[in-house]
Structures are given as structure tokens and as C-alpha cells.
Amino acid sequence: MSKSKDIHLYTASTMNGWKPVVFLEEAGVEYDLTHIDFSKKEQKSSEYLKLNPNGRIPTVVDRTNNDFVVFESGAILWYLAEKYGKFLPKDANSRSETLQWLMFQMAGVGPMMGQAMYFQRIAAKNGNGDPFAIKRYVDESRRLIEVLNTRLEGRTYLVDAQYTIADMAMYTWTRAYYWANVSVDGLPHLQEWLERIDARPATQRALEIPEPYPAFFGKGDVKRQEDQNAARFKDNE
Ligand SMILES: N[C@@H](CCC(=O)N[C@@H](CS)C(=O)NCC(=O)O)C(=O)O
């Protein structure tokens, strides 16, 4: 009889969706994955909303903990880090620093870059171009990644030598700077940090799960994936 795996992850290939995949691949945890199909609005189905009241991905169900459900990608990373004792430093100050940078990602980099992406790649494509909004979100995203660049000067990772959940969360967003049209020119520490995380085998695996999305990184058939992505959200919800 096959034993079900500890973790059931519901996700899709997006910046938030990849975060738990990166963790699980790094930690070597086996997991089941349900690929949520945005084109079918599976994230809004009544069944899925029972797990994630926000109707978005990712969501984790911990089968070893009475099917305990965790939503919000930052909370998921934190939960997994506590559960598996990995990628969250034990030392109180380093732990606090990790959570500070995780919050900075969740409250700053993610929302700002997300809106930069939304206004350019979805709203504009679906007939709602708004140059003021685009400039506002692109400029604010650039300002935030300049903060990251300064933090990374002389550091291997955001919390010194330790690779943590803060790096994982920050990486999936900043790696997609192309999709947000946010320049990384003149930010050498950020670029080197991206390359260091690119080179981790778990990162390479994670970015193909559940499917590769090369357009986010300016690769492959950008036009086709941009059209596909805009069509998924054509109601501009
Ligand atoms: N704050 C949430 C945001 C989740 C989120 O926005 N997920 C996006 C993909 S990156 C999504 O599910 N989009 C589908 C939709 O908006 O219907 C988190 O970090 O988990």
C-alpha cells in the first residue's frame, strides 16, 4: 500500500507559486503537487476556496498534522522552515533578520513588482493601459531592489552566509525583473546574488515545476506566453 506524502502543495508556475517548490526541493521533502489551472479558474472553485479563502496560490496541506492548511506564501515558507528545521536560523537575531527580509518581500517587493507586471503584462494587453500606474510601480520596484542591492553588498545571502526562506521568497520575484520591466543595471550585488541562487540545483529543478515559464525571464516565446497570461486574466480581476 502506498503511503501518501507528508505535504500536498497546490500551486502554479508563478513568483509566489514557486516559493514553496524552491523550499521543498532544497529540503529534499517529498510532496504531492496539484497544478492549479488559472485558465479554468480552479483557484476560485468552491472546493479550493475551502483551503485558501483568498482564491490564490500557493496552498499547502500538511498530512502529518491532521491536514492542517497553510495559505500565504510567506507563512507557508515559515511553516515549512519550522516543521523541517531548515532555512530559518536558530539564533534569535539572525532569525529576526530573516523574518524582516521575508516581510520586506511580502509587503514590498512582491506587491510592487506584481502591480508593475499586472499593469504592463495584463491590463495594458487587455485594453487598460495606464502609463502613470506603470511608472509608479516600476519606479517603486526599482527603489526596493536598490535597497536589496545595498543589503547584499559584502554578503553571500540576505542573512550573511546562510541561505534562508527570505532569499527563497525574494529570489522568485527579483529573478523575474524582466517581466516587470524593472532594470537591474548598476546593481552588481543583486545580480551576483541572483546568479548564486540560479546555480543551486534545487532552484533549477523548482523553476520547471509544475511547468517552465521562460517568458518571465525574457526567454523562449515571450509573446506567446504573454498572450496566454493576459488571456487568463482578461476580465482584469
Ligand atoms: N499574498 C499571496 C498572494 C498570492 C497570489 O497573488 N498568487 C497569484 C499567483 S502569484 C494567484 O494566485 N493569482 C491568481 C488569481 O489572481 O486569481 C501569497 O503570497 O500567497
Automatic annotation (TrEMBL):
List, for all copies, the residue spans of the domain called GST N-terminal: 4-88
Q: Which GO terms describe its molecular function?
A: transferase activity
Signal peptide stretch: none
Highest taxon in the source lineage = Bacteria
CDD domains, alphabetized = GST_N_Ure2p_like (cd03048)
Question: Entry's InterPro entries?
Answer: Glutathione-S-Trfase_C-like, Glutathione-S-Trfase_C_sf, Glutathione_S-Trfase, Glutathione_S-Trfase_N, GST_C, Thioredoxin-like_sf
Which PROSITE patterns is this protein grouped with? Answer: GST_CTER, GST_NTER
Q: Which family does it belong to?
A: Belongs to the GST superfamily.
Task: Return the protein name.
Answer: Glutathione S-transferase
Q: Which organism is it from?
A: Salinimonas iocasae
- Lineage per the UniProt record: Bacteria, Pseudomonadati, Pseudomonadota, Gammaproteobacteria, Alteromonadales
